UniProtKB/TrEMBL annotation:
It comes from Pseudomonas spirodelae. Keywords: Acyltransferase, Transferase. This is GNAT family N-acetyltransferase. PANTHER family: GLUCOSAMINE 6-PHOSPHATE N-ACETYLTRANSFERASE (PTHR13355). GO terms for molecular function: acyltransferase activity. InterPro entries: Acyl_CoA_acyltransferase, GNAT_dom, GNPNAT1-like. Residues 4-141 form the N-acetyltransferase domain. It holds the Pfam family Acetyltransf_10.
Length: 141
């Protein structure tokens, strides 16, 4: 396996790759309705692509208020630290932008993953797109 690297993505230029990954993970695997997956915030968000060599295998986005979302890694690359690389890149970008607090809505099964990266659960469980979630927050030093 080649080295995984993460780069900033351009919503227009990288749109096909961003959509392919999110549609595979959220719409196809998790049955999130397409109308819930795509929103107006995509055009304003900072997007990230995780790549193995030149092949995009994961994505995430950062909103101007510090919300991290749409974190998705293709099935064959899960468990290979792609998600860790993605979240670390998003946190670094957030901090460079002066966003001292990062927030996300985590699927309950993924909370331990986010806790290892410094996030803490700050809400009770709730359903989003029919999937149990909790709100999590990370404060920069």
């Amino acid at each position: 396996m080649s080295e995984i690297h993460v780069r900033l993505a351009d919503w227009q230029k990288d749109n096909a790759d961003l959509r392919r990954i999110r549609e595979t993970v959220f719409v196809a695997e998790q049955a999130v309705p397409p109308e819930l997956e795509w929103d107006a915030e995509d055009a304003e968000a900072v997007h990230f692509l995780a790549l193995e060599g030149d092949y995009p295998v994961g994505t995430a986005r950062l909103l101007a208020d510090g919300h991290i979302g749409r974190v998705s890694v293709l099935k064959d690359w899960r468990g290979l630290n792609v998600g860790v690389a993605l979240i670390q890149a998003v946190i670094e970008e957030a901090e460079q932008r002066g966003l001292k607090q990062q927030m996300l809505s985590a699927q309950v099964h993924a909370t331990a993953f986010y806790e290892k990266l410094g996030f803490a659960i700050v809400s009770g469980e709730y359903l989003e797109a029919g999937i149990p979630h909790v709100d999590m927050v990370r404060n920069s030093a």
